[in-house]
Amino acid sequence: MTPTERLLAAAVVEDPTLLAFGTVSDLAARVGTSRPSVVRFATKLGFAGYAELQQQVRAALSRQLSRPSQRIRQQDESLAPVRAALEAALARVFTALDGGRLQKLAAPIVPARRVWVLSGETSRAGARAFLGKLRIVRPGVHWIEEHSCAHDLATAAPGDVAVVFDFARYRRHAVETARLLAARGVAIVAITDGPLSPLAALTTNWCELEVPGVGPFDSSVPAVAAAELLVAQVARELRDEAKERIDRTEAMWDSTGTFH
C-alpha cells in the first residue's frame, strides 16, 4: 500500500464505524486525503468501489453486535423469515462455487500429501462434514484440535493443504493456526464470509458464504452444503482412486457388521 492507503487502513482499523456509516468525504477528511484516494483504496482491497466495501463492513459489524442473547429477544415467531434467509444463503453457496471456483478450491486438495482441517466454533458442523466424507475418498486427512495444535504444526510442510472453515466472530485458534500453517508453506483453502475475513488475507483460494441467523445462533447449513459440494468435486477428480477407497471402506463395514 501507498503511505496514504496505510493511513486509511489504520483509520478504519481504529474506528470501523467511520467506514461503515461515513461517506467517502468523511473518511478522506479524517486522513487528510482526497475522495479518489479513498475509492482507489477500496478497489485495491478487491471491491468494486467504496459502496461495496462499506456494505461488507456494515455486515461484519452487524454480526459482531448481534450476540445470541440479543437474537433471542429479536427473533420472529414466524418461520417465514428464517426460511427465506436459508434459501437465500443456499443459493449464495451455489453462486459462490460456480464459474470454476469449486474446481479451484479442490485443485490443491486432490494431490496434497496431507489435508489438515481446521475450524472455528460456528463453522464446525461444515468442517466436520468435510472431514468425515473426505476421509472416505482419500487418505491423509487430519483434524486439528486446539490441544494438539503444536504437535500437528510440527509435522505440517509444503505439499500439504489446510482447509479452514471460519466465520465472524473469527476464532483466534483457527485464524492463528492458519497463519502458522501458511508460514510453513502449507497451501490454504478457506471457506469464510467475505474479503474482510482474516482468512482471506492468507490465500487467494477462498470462497464467500452468507451465514444467516436461525434463532440465537448462526446457521450451519451453508457451511455443510459447501463442504459436501467440495468433497464431491474432489471425488470426481480422484475418480478410480476414490471409488476403490470407498469400496474398501464399504467392505470393511460389511465384515465388521457396522450396520444392521
CATH class of the largest domain: Alpha Beta
CATH topology of the largest domain: Rossmann fold
Number of domains: 2
What number is the mean pLDDT? 88
Which architecture name of the largest domain does CATH use? 3-Layer(aba) Sandwich
Residues in helices, as a percent range: 55-70%
SS strand fraction: 5-15%
Return the string of H and E elements. Answer: HHHHHHHHEHEHEHEEEEHH
What spatial order of strands do you see in the largest sheet?
2-1-3-4-5
- Major β-sheet annotation: 5 strands, parallel
Counted by DSSP, the helix tally is 13
Structural classification? alpha/beta
The number of distinct β-strands equals 7
Under CATH, the homologous superfamily of the largest domain reads Glucose-6-phosphate isomerase like protein, domain 1
Query: What overall geometry do the principal axes of the alpha carbons give?
Result: globular
Estimated radius of gyration: 21 Å
| Sequence stretches where pLDDT stays below 50 over 5 or more residues | none
Distance between the termini: 61 Å
